[in-house]
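haha ok so turns out i had the wrong file open the whole time. this is the CORRECT one, sorry everyone. sequence first:
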Amino acid sequence: MPTMSDIPFLDLVAPHVELEEELVSVFRTALSRAEFIGGSRVEEFESSFAAFCNTKHSVAVSSGTDALRFALVACGIQAGDVVVTVPHTFIATTEAISQAGAMPEFVDIDERTYNISAEKLQQFLETQCTREKSGKLISLRNGRPVTAVVPVHLYGQMADMDAILELADQYGLIIIEDACQAHGAEYFSKRFERWMKAGSMGKAAAFSFYPGKNLGACGEAGAVTTSDDVVAQQIRMLRDHGQSRKYHHGIEGYNGRLDAIQAGILQVKLRFLAEWNRQRRDAAVRYHELFDGRGLECTLPCEPSWSRSVYHLYVIRTAERKKLQEHLANSGVGTGIHYPIPLHLQDAYRSAGYKQGDFPVAECAAEEVLSLPMFPGLTAMQQKRVVEEVVRFDGVADSALSTELAARA
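then structure:
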């Protein structure tokens, strides 16, 4: 049973207690207006979130999975197309691709950032694809047209978007960002000569507002950001049964609307997001400082000079993950694993024909990554204790290894 001295992996209670009156007032307003689906609350949040992401449009939907699925469809991905992404992500990324009628194919990740490797993407396009006389790019794996790439901005850090956009231009690909973990993350683009927000660099981007995200609802919610008027309008129709106006169905759509109460909650929380992200970045700096010079057998997060991560997660790597996680749990420190099985090895994608060894960087990361406590309000004393427990485990592990080696001699 948790005790008062335990350090949670994520604290969802404190921010809601602090904002309780404002959040409850959202519900009261919805009751007094009987405004539950759509309406001014949703429109206000859409406008505010678009401004936050520096995009022309934000279209609120029912979840991050729907956001990515609708973005793919609205951007013109057709049934039978190939959409390239990474195996080191949550399955919602590939579910959205499959549910849009396309087929996911994978490229490996960058060992430092865990995001899609632009180098591996280039190799895939050069060696695993061919061009028809018409110029259409075809996957040699299955003979299907390759039309899009979904870079996942994992753990709160953006992928190397300049390199990805350059390849997209060269091969005629659509870029749709999976920004579900990257609310407020930034990338310095030499291409555009400025810092750019997650969600503003592709043709469209998907965000999740699942409760544990940097900006989380009190339930399911998501949004698509885009500066393309046609894409935005298409998504508005897709989320609402294909309606352009009531009972006028231009296309067959879905029931993927965001309810007004969740939109109101998100509008309240959005005012605090920049500060919450700052606290996460400060906590990441403290972790780095506390770990510095300890000589531990673990790898800390890497934040390249072109990146401003919002540290949705603070992820270390260690070959002794299982034992370290058990040690931390016994010491009252919560942790998480994101993600233990790469998608190409999941039973759900067995028919795709991938095998162990196809994506070695992702496979190694899946065996070694461990997420430490990270949330706004995480104190320096809590972090000091987390690091002390990691150091304590490392010392015990080193001692055990020395004993084992001596016994073998």
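The longest strand covers residues 57-61.
again sry for the mixup
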